[in-house]
Amino acid sequence: MTGADVIPVSVLTGFLGSGKTTMLGHLLRQPEFSRTAVIINEFGEIGLDHELIETSEDSIVALTTGCLCCTVRTDLSQTLQDLLRRRDEGSCSRFDRIVIETSGLADPAPILHALMTDPIIAARLTLGSVVTTVDAVNGCATLEREPVSRKQVAVADRIVVSKLDLAERVAESALLRQLDALNPAAPTLRATHGCIESTSLFDAAFCDRRAGDAWLAEAARHAHHDHDTEITSFAVIRTAPIQAIALTLFLEALAEHCGADLLRLKGIVNIAESPHRPAIIHGVQHVFHPPAWLDRWPSADRRSRMVFITRRIPQPWVGVLLDAIAAEVADVSVRP
Amino acid sequence: MSGAPVELACELLTESLAAWRIRRSVERTSDDAIVISGDTRIRIEPAPRDSMFRWMVAIGGRKRPALSLLAVLRQVREALDPDYAANRVRVAVAPLVPQ
């Protein structure tokens, strides 16, 4: 094997809803990322992110068995070996770069540690750079509330601030000060609607990083990372199409009653008025983005699937809320 | 209003109180109303058919109309949850269906 065969593995991390998948989707449409294999790790009982990334590449692997940072020694190592085997066999595109998108709750330190120390991985792969996305709207509050989000920033080679179009300038300034305090060595880049200058985004070498050393050392001491036990993930799946106004009211109710406890909502929704073009919904705490409309269904599965990551919000409430609103909308529709 | 929305409304209120950690019982009455027991008794019933409202909510004897289940939820929570402050909602014009 020559040095040229060593494939860089970059890590894309960032807290829930910070724009990782949106940015990755944008990057994968750029020519320089055409030979990229992607590993997507999702914290939830069903995975959606791989369906939200529109790409012709066949080298996308979804890891939905748990949070990557908790199963890093088995799942990640096995997945990387499988990818290399498929590349060698020619059964997938001949990628020359791997990007791992972590779950929003993942502590990146064990992942980086595994990439650095696993002998099987180290023989053919090298750690590329770590890119951390931070949401300009919720970033300050998230950094204060969520220790793992601070780790994600601390180990970054590049920090990408997203959703600047939604943030007030004062909030942006406060966030930049926080980021600088946590990781002054990492350049801060700006993404607009997920778009970012992709040149050299993933080129920084891990050995350049200084700020994350303490986290990595901690990861070496502790094999397991405990998540906040109040954080849960669940899916709400509905077979019947949902009327657009019912979905709107449902999202409004979630924003009103859940607030910061709704850490993340992602979904693909079969809208009754748009049967051939599903809506992609994103919500982070009380902020919901306007739905994005796919040109077509990404698979034969036409059910509405919404994944929630919440703190102290019970699944039954969310399910019956949607059903009750849908029933009321349907009742109003037929009322003379 | 059909019986189904009342039944779902009853279930929604039960789950909502649990989600908000409010210990009250929710019962459906024989006259198709929903009653939340406790110091402040709350009675929710379908509004008359000729009304522009869908629900009537009586809290401690004071009766107010509600346009939707979301309005009912808001009234109930405001009455029972002293820490409740509706979260700020960002509103932007966006199409409900693809253009």
In short:
Chain A contains eleven helices and 13 strands.
Task: Tell me what the structure shows.
The complex is a heterodimer of chains A (336) and B (99). Chain A is an alpha/beta fold and 336 residues long. Chain A folds into 2 domains: 3-221, 3-Layer(aba) Sandwich (Rossmann fold), CATH 3.40.50; 231-334, CobW-like, C-terminal domain (Hypothetical Protein Yjia, Chain: A,domain 2, 2-Layer Sandwich), CATH 3.30.1220. In chain A, 36% of the residues lie in helices and 25% in strands. Chain A has helices at residues 20-28, 49-52, 72-89, 108-117, 119-124, 139-145, 147-154, 169-182, 213-221, 244-258, 315-334, and strands spanning 7-14, 36-41, 60-63, 97-101, 125-135, 158-162, 188-190, 231-238, 262-271, 274-284, 287-288, 292-293, 304-311. In chain A, the strands form 2 sheets. A 7-stranded parallel beta sheet of chain A has the order 3-2-4-1-5-6-7, sandwiched between helices. In chain A, β6, α8 (169-182) and β7 (188-190) form a beta-alpha-beta unit. In chain A, α4 (108-117) packs across α9 (213-221), α6 (139-145) crosses α7 (147-154) and α10 (244-258) packs antiparallel against α11 (315-334). Residues 54-58 and 204-226 of chain A have low confidence and may be disordered. Chain B is of the alpha+beta class and 99 residues long. Chain B has one domain. Chain B has helices at residues 3-19, 69-80; strands spanning 26-28, 34-36, 42-46, 55-59, 62-66. Chain B has a 5-stranded antiparallel beta sheet with strand order 1-2-3-4-5, with helices on one face. Chain B is globular, with a radius of gyration of 15 Å. The model of chain B has no long low-confidence stretch (mean pLDDT 87). The chains are: A alpha/beta (336), B alpha+beta (99). The A-B interface holds A 166, 244-245, 248-249, 252-253, 255-260, 271, 273-274, 277, 279, 286-288, 290-291, 293, 313-314, 316-317, 320-321, 323-325, 327-328, 331-332, 335 and B 1-2, 4-5, 8-9, 11-12, 15-16, 18-20, 54, 68-70, 73-74, 77, 86-90, 92, 94-98.
